[in-house]
Design goal:
This protein is mainly α. 59% of the residues lie in helices and 0% in strands.
Amino acid sequence: MEMSLRKMGLFQLTICHLISAGYKETIEDVETHIINEDLVQYIAEKYQASIFDAQIGEEEFAKPLNKYFSDYIGYIQGNEDRKYGIVNPDDGLILIIALISDKVSYESSKWIIKC
């Protein structure tokens, strides 16, 4: 089954908002929820009062994002510093941003900008 990641940007903006508001998650907790494929729902439920779009926790929104994140777990777990430069154990939200940035970096190699 194919799933769209078109809502990845909205999730990224949500995480940016949480970071700006001073919220923290441990890398260990984020990785646990990545393994369980419920990271998006976890964030939506825990920070419900701070999230500006209720659809984030819905299955249709969350399932493709959770799958995307879970595909990375073997690549990142224990290598957060080496892969993404994340050194603080409570920078799990930044890890989410780094994983999204990785996808954008890969996909943007196909983008053409006329100058």
